[in-house]
Amino acid sequence: MSSHVIKIAGALLALILGLSLGRLWPTATQATDDSDLSGERRERAADIETDDPETGLAVPLEQAITTTLRNWQQGEMPDDMILFALQVEAWAQADPARAFAALQNMKHLRPGIYFATLGIVAKEWGQVNPEAMLSAAEGLTHSYAHQHFLLQGMTGAMHADPDFAMEWLGENRHLDQANSFTFSLLAELSTIDPLEAFERAALLNDPQLKSDLQGTIAAQFAETSPDAAFAWASSLEPGRTKERAVEAVMEQMSYLHPEKAIEYAADLPDDLFPLYRDQITHKVIAGLAATHPQEASQLLGNLETPNQYDDAVQTLAERWGLMDYEAAAEWVQSIADPYSQNLAERALMVGAALNSPERAMQIAADMQVSDQSSDLASFLATQWARVDPAGASEWMLSLSDRDLPAGGVRETLQTWAQADSDAAIEYVQANAGRFQERALVPVFFADLAARDPQHAMETAMLMQDPTDRYSAVTSVLQATSRRNPTQALEMLESFSEPEIRDWGVMSVVSEIAKLTPREAFKHTQSVTDHVYKYQSVLATVLAVSEYDRDLARQMIDQSGLPPDEKQIAYEGIE
Question: What is the DSSP pairing of strand 58-60 with strand 49-51?
């Protein structure tokens, strides 16, 4: 498939997204025949024919497009999106003014469909008659439609008259998103004349824009002409521009022309700074790792910087492990340096685990976990949990606190809860004591509350141990109060046990007070336990004092606390 067709298909993907926003009402009515706007027509749009997919008979192209839109209105997607994109392109090529006018009459066209189709029309019009396209753009009142039409139209104009397009760009640097216009136009020019595009990019004042563009232009040059691109990049004057160009060319070749990348990686220009030479080689190794790992491993010997060597070893091991674990493992064992071999082994485990949860389970079960490898153990367990969450959780809990941070168990439980929350909850309830040692009960229930607060609270209330229940309920209330204070208050009012309601109020009033201070204070007055009441009032007035100190003082006055506790509260807000 040509890159031209791929670009059209990409633009038309927005049509699919537009449909999800609502129904489409195509009204492609007849437009005025503005021959002075369209330029010299190659053929009338109404005269172009295409085959009806059902009957095989020829039908006018404009009718075919209108029929497709009408079918979309009824929820029937086109069988071939690329074909439809090409039909719109042909419609615009034949009579862009007519196509543009028809689009303006589609008053209820969904934004995704409208903008994508408008962009195709603009680009074709810009190639035929850029002046007429610019004139039509003035009639677009919607800011994004105007900007999108100009961008696509001038991208097309770059094919017809690059000097005209660049002159227009220079005169319109005041436009919003001017850098986006510059990037798009020069990137388009690079598909026509990469050397001219690169020279024009070199004249830009914005260093970041210049850098990004030069890299993009060099990569596009390498995509179509790898030999010429490498020769050109190598011939540039020594400096950062040359290094950037060679890097972009080599990285692109490593993915699209791996044999060329292997050939030229051994022949990088001598005047490259050693660090940049190593960075380029590292990127080539990364690109080759999935398709030519053996050849990539041989390039490691070209690296002069120890840090770049270690980074490249890890990159290769991880990506090779994704594709062929056994072959990658054999290569890792051949690494002579123990430190580099250890880095490669860890990276290999990551790559293998990403590709196969079962492999993660096997690796984790066989590994000796230490404080140096606890992060890797956490990752492996998370991957393991995708196929055996109970086994992964049990393995994590079997490790010592010294060897394993609590975050590893948390991530494993999160993976489990997303797949089967009831099973994960049952496991937490059965092992609450073990989780409590690592403060994981509140963490787990806070995560659960983020997805379903009511279900999380109902489950938290079922915890048998009073300490576990307190921890779980508090975490659910706190998590809910941050997202939905009203729901948290409703939960508090539903508690029948005074003790649970008391410490529930204490746990959430500081959050609720930020939005509804008087409601929070009212709940502090319903607390029956004196210690909990004091803590609740103090938390409330401290939160309120951050934005209304007078209101905080009034609350202390009306709190019913003993004088000594009131004094502490006064001092706290001053």
Answer: antiparallel
Which of these, 486, 483, 448, 484, lies nearest to 473 by C-alpha position?
A: 448
Amino acid letter, 63: Q
Q: In this structure, is the dihedral angle defined by the CA atoms of residues 564, 566, 567 and 568, taken in order, positive or negative?
A: positive
120 vs 7: CA distance, rounded Å: 10
Q: What is the CA radius of gyration of the chain?
A: 33
- DSSP-assigned beta bridge partners for residue 60: 49
Confidence of residue 237 (pLDDT cuts 50, 70, 90): very high
Sequence ranges of the domains in the chain: 492-573
CA 32 to chain centre: 44
pLDDT in tens, 358-386: 787 777 766 665 545 667 777 787 788 77
Rounded Cα–Cα distance for residues 143 and 138 (Å): 11
For the beta carbon of residue 142, count every other beta carbon within 10 angstroms.
12
Burial of 415 (0-12, 13-18, 19+ CB in 10 A): buried
Q: Give me 51's structure tokens.
A: 């085959």
Helix (H, G, I), strand (E, B) or coil at 479: helix
Q: CA-CA distances (angstroms) from residue 185 to 200, 213, 412?
A: 11, 10, 48
Q: What is the pLDDT of residues 164-205, one digit of tens each?
A: 998 998 888 777 678 888 999 999 999 999 999 999 898 888
Contacts of 63 (CB under 8 A, 6+ apart): none
Report which of 248, 177, 165 is spatially closest to residue 211, judged by C-alpha positions: 248
d(CA 241, CA 236): 8
Q: Which two tokens stand for residue 535?
A: 């803590």
Contact 526, 557 (CB under 8 A): no
pLDDT bracket for residue 519 (50, 70, 90): confident
